[in-house]
Amino acid sequence: MFDHLFKMSLDLNTILKDWPHENRTIKVRKILGLDGRQKLQLRIDLGVLQMELTGRPDGLRPHGCESLLTYHQLRATRAKARNEDYALTPEQCAELQQEGIQYYHRYLSLFQIDDFHGVVRDTQRNLELFDFVDAHTERDELSWTLQQFRPYVLMMNTRAKASIFLGQGKFPEAIAEIRRGRDAIAEFFQKSNFPELAAKSSEIHFLEEWLNEVSAKRPRSKLEIMESEMETAVAKELYERAAELRDAIQQLKKVELLKNVEQLRS
Predict the structure, then answer these.
(1) Residue 49: phi, psi to the nearest 5?
(2) Which of 96-100, 136-140, 157-161 bottoms out in mean pLDDT, i.e. has the lowest?
(3) Average pLDDT value over all residues in the chain
(4) In 192-238, which ranges are continuous DSSP H helix?
(5) Among candidates 132, 103, 97, 96, which has minimal Cα distance to 120?
(6) Domain that holds residue 184
């Protein structure tokens, strides 16, 4: 009888019924753990993934380090100090890839709750993982098992950074960030063995569409408004008004130039 009650206490059905899975919907929530710290939960079709908000998502510390990547980075640094090469085995590459998947689940979840700083942190961490594996294995196929995900991770990193700027009302900075991300993905494909994939990249396509959308919503600056008014005045043959606007535009450009010079000096 007691064994039966113990088994029932491990049944997750109550939790799953209270938080049902929905197809094509990423459901994420924060909960307070028994240790008093907040946890992140991701609902999947077969259950719930629970992750720590910082450190390695599963809360483990491999070899006493924050992550397996950190552990290998420390070993690689020590090897370099001894003028030795540090090479990853296929098994170690596979373990690092599995750890990267944990961070993927977390940054995907963080994006759903608008924790963009957390997304930047975890995507940057996985990009660092790709670079590390590429630098410490001579087998292209092992490197590519991770590098193939670089366009997606770059896109998510770009979305998070640009979203932070948009939340601050900084449209020019957001637009510049989207362009940087798009160009970084294109450059990756050009340097890879599959440059033709750039034209088919869903990540590049998404960022270009988002760039157009953000650009269309960007509030026009005072200078842009005045230039538009001047064009309208010329079209309507209101030449005196057009001349006034031209002089005002030139003056405004001088003021902005002086501000930029002062900022550089400071």
Answers:
(1) -95, 130
(2) 136-140
(3) 91
(4) 202-217, 222-235
(5) 103
(6) 157-219
Strands (E), the chain: 27-32, 38-44, 47-52
Angle among Cα 106, 110, 116 to the nearest 5 degrees reads 125
Is 198 found in the same domain as 166?
yes
- Angstrom CA distances, 96 to 73, 89, 126, 146, stand at 12, 11, 10, 9
Best CA proximity match to 173, nearest among 183, 163, 182, 187? 163
Tally of domains within the chain: 2
Mean pLDDT, residues 56-81 taken together: 97
pLDDT at 141: 92
pTM of this prediction?
0.80
Chain centre to alpha carbon of residue 218: 22
Would 236 be classed as within a structural domain? Answer: yes
CA 140 remoteness from chain centre: 25
**Same domain membership, residue 235 and residue 206:** no
> Considering the domain boundaries, does residue 13 fall inside one?
no
Q: Is residue 212 part of a domain?
A: yes
pLDDT over 90 (residue 238): no
Within this chain, do residues 248 and 227 fall inside the same structural domain, yes or no?
yes
Residues 167 and 211 in one domain: yes
In a domain, 196, yes or no: yes
